[in-house]
Design a protein that fits this description.
Helix content: under 10%
Number of strands: 16
Order of helices and strands: EHEEEEEEEHEEEEEEEE
CATH architecture: Sandwich
Largest sheet: 8 strands, antiparallel
CATH class: Mainly Beta
CATH topology: Jelly Rolls
Low-confidence stretches: none
Number of domains: 1
Oligomer: single chain
Amino acid sequence: MDVVGADVVKWELTADHFQANGGSGSDPAGYTTTVVEVGTGTSEAEASDEENIVAELVTAANDNDGISLQLNGEAFSFDSDHDIYFGVKLEINDVDQTDILAGLCITDTTLLGGVSDGVYFESVDGVATVSTVAEQDSSETQSDSEGTLADDTAMTLEFYWNGAAVYFFIDGAQVGRVTANVPDDELLTPSIEFLTGEATANRCKIHWARAYQIGKS
């Protein structure tokens, strides 16, 4: 999948982002990275040497330890003049003892529970279900239990904005359509946050992640 043209914004998480900043064990270059490491160990994003896995997010071992990645520079606009696609394929070792957020958001150091503007998927500690969210100025249109994660099992999360509505997809099937609380007055950036919900280090493997914006002019 790719897009080309004069009015295109595109992003894809690749191993090159990590190698440009020192290789394995280094946070990726070009990202705002926020880590919480109250417990033992290190919260980090790292390039993966596992086949078909681009990166792994690893938490330190205390409740709410973890890491967030946000691409530097907010460039995605949910206005009527753009089409936007976001997608990520990921798997988590312990789905009901972790929190995950993935989508397009404003830059924020506390995405889970703190971000005010974005379009994203999330799953929170204590459940394995996936919610879809469109949020503008802290007002949300949220649909819960749109999908169910399973331990060590890959799931694909995608959404598409056609200039009027956001369509959410899980593993290729449409699960929702949203027109309310879409943040059309902020520029957003690709964002992923992963936290552990227990005093144990946990891991999220990212097979791929990408976002595209196409202008209609």
